Each structure stands twice: as C-alpha cells, then as structure tokens.
C-alpha cells in the first residue's frame, strides 16, 4: 500500500458517527475520501464540508453527504494533506491551489489532522515554493509587494493557461528560500492589500499522520 494511502486510512479511524468532517484536497486526501465512503457504506453516519470543488465532486460521487459552508457551524475533525511539514508542525499547503478554503476549514475545526508521506517532512520550510492567493484585479501591484518581501514570485499556470483557484483568484508560487520565521512571514504577506491568504499554516495542526515506504505509519502530537 502507498504511504499516502496508509496515512489517510489511519486518520479516518479517528472519525466517529455524528461528526462533521472537513475534507481536504489532494492525492493523499483522495484515499481518505475513499475510506470515509467505505465506512459510510458500513454504517458510519457523518456529514462533510469540502475544501475544493474536486473533493466535493469525489465525495458526492462516492455517497458522502456534503453540506455547504453556509450551513456549517463548527467542524469536529478535518483531514488534509500538506506539501511540507516542519518539526513544529508548521505547514506549507496550497500545492493543489485550495489553500484558502483549506485554511478556513482548518481554522474552524476542533481537530486538524494532517496526513502525509515521509517525503513531506522537512527541517525548515521553503523548498516547496509558498503558494499565495491574490485577487486578479491589480495582480501586478500585489505581486510587486510580495516580491519586496524577498522572494521570487511566479504566477501559476496549468497547460499554458493562467491557473485560477476555485474562488476565481490567481495563485502566486513564491520561492523565499528557507523560511525561518513562518508566523512573521504569514502576517506580512496577509497584510498586503490584494493578498487573500497564503499557504503557511502556522500552529494549526493538532496531529500528524505519516506513512512510510516500509508500510508503517506514525502518529505525532
Ligand atoms: C492542496 C493542498 C494539498 O493538501 C497538498 O498540496 C498536498 O497534496 P498531495 O496530498 O497531493 O501531496 O494543500 O491545496
């Protein structure tokens, strides 16, 4: 079994009947959504809110009851992936472009479980370029201010076209090199007018589930 699948399935064991579940986005969460669907068919009763149109569609196809953001109060448990995780459980997320909804869901969850394979664990964040979501209007002005913080910004494209998030915004992938002060960087980025949010999730994860190539899985708190 792949390390991503092992981590995802372990995290799904934490779900109990009656819970409202946040569904993250990405290839690791893909396995979690499938496992949740399997448990629902075995009798688990939950409802879920999704962090992306892709996760919502997959969940609906598999029979997971989805409720819209507007109908959600608090979320009991969210399961999501990450692009990098450091020793303090600070994360870079947004490789799949879903960072805004992911952060809103995580911030409103009692428990935020991060599922990764071992390759995502790093000493310092920053090898993975930090995704920053910006409104398309006056993007160049916003990008100039982001660059002034000391990074090389690149507008994300897909198949040669400018990538748009589910919210209709641009994603700017920012190479800051090693990120030594994630809390300060996230505050400085989010204070730039035109920045919607960035992919640094600082002190938000409650638990890390790591899948290894040798087939083992480890929970870290
Ligand atoms: C999407 C994300 C994903 O959780 C992150 O990119 C990890 O993806 P994967 O599980 O495919 O490696 O933040 O915006």
TrEMBL record:
Catalytic residues (UniProt): 102 (proton acceptor)
UniProtKB keywords: Isomerase
Origin superkingdom: Bacteria
UniProt keyword annotation of Transmembrane helix present: no
Reaction catalysis annotation: aldehydo-D-ribose 5-phosphate = D-ribulose 5-phosphate
Protein name (database record): Ribose-5-phosphate isomerase A
Pathway named in the protein's UniProt entry: Carbohydrate degradation; pentose phosphate pathway; D-ribose 5-phosphate from D-ribulose 5-phosphate (non-oxidative stage): step 1/1
Organism: Paenibacillus agricola
One GO molecular-function entry: ribose-5-phosphate isomerase activity
Assigned protein family: Belongs to the ribose 5-phosphate isomerase family.
Record's subunit section: Homodimer.
EC number: 5.3.1.6
Binding of substrate, residues: 25-28, 80-83, 93-96, 120
Pfam families (UniProt xref): Rib_5-P_isom_A
Function: Catalyzes the reversible conversion of ribose-5-phosphate to ribulose 5-phosphate.
């Amino acid at each position: 079994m792949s390390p991503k699948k092992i981590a995802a399935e372990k995290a799904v064991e934490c779900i109990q009947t009656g819970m409202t579940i946040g569904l993250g986005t990405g290839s690791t969460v893909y396995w979690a959504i499938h496992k949740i669907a399997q448990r629902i068919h075995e009798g688990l009763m939950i409802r879920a809110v999704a962090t992306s149109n892709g996760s919502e569609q997959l969940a609906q196809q598999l029979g997971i009851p989805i409720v819209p953001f507007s109908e959600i109060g608090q979320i009991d448990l969210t399961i999501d992936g990450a692009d990098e995780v450091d020793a303090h459980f600070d994360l870079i997320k947004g490789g799949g472009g879903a960072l805004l909804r992911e952060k809103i869901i995580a911030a409103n969850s009692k428990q935020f479980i991060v599922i990764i394979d071992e390759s995502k664990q790093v000493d310092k964040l920053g090898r993975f370029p930090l995704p920053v979501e910006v409104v398309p209007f006056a993007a160049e002005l916003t990008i100039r201010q982001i660059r002034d913080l000391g990074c090389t910004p690149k507008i994300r494209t897909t198949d040669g076209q400018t990538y748009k998030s589910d919210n209709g915004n641009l994603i700017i992938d920012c190479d800051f090199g090693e990120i030594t002060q994630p809390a300060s960087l996230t505050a400085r980025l989010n204070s730039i007018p035109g920045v919607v949010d960035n992919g640094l999730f600082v002190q938000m994860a409650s638990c890390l589930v790591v899948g290894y190539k040798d087939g083992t899985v480890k929970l870290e708190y």
